[in-house]
Amino acid sequence: MRRGIAATALVAAMALAATACGGDDGDNGGGKPGGKLSGSVTYWDTSNDAEKGTYKKLALGFQKEHPGVKVNYVNVPFGEALAKFKNAAGSGGSGAPDVLRTEVAWTHDLANIGYLAPLDGTAALDNASDYLPKAAAGTKFKGKTYAVPQVIDTLGLFYNKKMLADAGVEPPKSWTELKAAAKKIKKKTGKTGLYLRGDDAYWYLPFIYGEGGDLLDTKAKKVTVDDKPGVKAFAAARDLVTSGAAETDATDGWDNMQNAIKNGDVAMTINGPWAIEDTLAGKAFKDKSNLGVVPVPAGGAGQGAPQGGQNLTVYAGSKNLDASYAFAAYMSSADVQAKTTEELSLLPTRTSVYRNKKVAANANVKFFKAAVDKAVERPWIPEGNSLFQAILVQFPGVLTGKTSPEKAANSVGDAYRKLLKGDWK
């Protein structure tokens, strides 16, 4: 979640078999539209360890509303889910789920291949006008809707309030301020200022946005990651490590980062709402009020963080489409979103949920909603998810000094021009 937007190897697009099935118990008759639902729905959930208990409970709650339907809940590791789904769908559908929780960038990729069912005019799009416009934007491909938004997110700066107070520093508003704060933190507490995750390309985005750049200019069909802002972004990330303000690791970044902040070994991390519950489980946050969250520090051109999130998609080869549409609607309903937010502090995609008193009173939700409103939308193109692979190859090398920022940016740019078809330049 980000458990990591780990780039997954591309699977060759294959024609979708007309006989592909989603359910796995041989009883997939969904009944007539508008009638009583029956059969089974297999749901692949990609939530992390801190979230999956809540999501399983909510998913199984669908059976209470539709006693004739059996929900087969399967938690699939986020980093494996896309390739696993493509393999299942591309080999005729055997073992593929009826409903898949997809990272927002996967939706266009899977719709382009033909593995997703369009949702327009189905029960899945229940009260679609209630969705946040930014959340809904990532669900459409070539004029059709292929997903319903489940959660929306962005990145922020998590910090240990006591550690910063002991060092006499305020939460930094820029990378320059973070470097200065880290020196005081090290002097006063002996701890490192920031753990910077280096094995996930998503953590590079605040740097390039902060320098006023972007990966692509989709309107001009131009690769921009190797322009000056892209080079400055790699340099800014590298500078945090060489200055001693940050520590990093090219492997096991998620676990190392979470252990560092939870155990009080570092004062700050960059993370999203999906990490709140896991972070609060650490010994450094026995007093939950000790965790603070502020915007990601600004670069030379300002502050910027990426828009992320999770959608719910329906497999085009499902033999129980009626129940699958209804399940997608249920899992993205205002009621389920409110329960998810109350228990996990995840951001709803429905405007109405923010009027819920418990949701409105959640300080972390309040912060991240404001941050999401300012977040930079990622390229909504089929190749959107694949853009992370080239960054992932270069980012660890830059942080460890094995690759220069200039070489890294140029390598990523070259990889993009090979990836993108048509008249991209």
Automatic annotation (TrEMBL):
Residues 1-20 form the signal peptide. It comes from the Bacteria. PROSITE patterns: PROKAR_LIPOPROTEIN. InterPro entries: SBP. Pfam families: SBP_bac_1. The keyword Transport applies. Keywords: Signal, Transport. The lineage of its organism: Bacteria, Bacillati, Actinomycetota, Actinomycetes, Kitasatosporales. This is Extracellular solute-binding protein. Belongs to the bacterial solute-binding protein 1 family. The keyword Plastid does not apply.
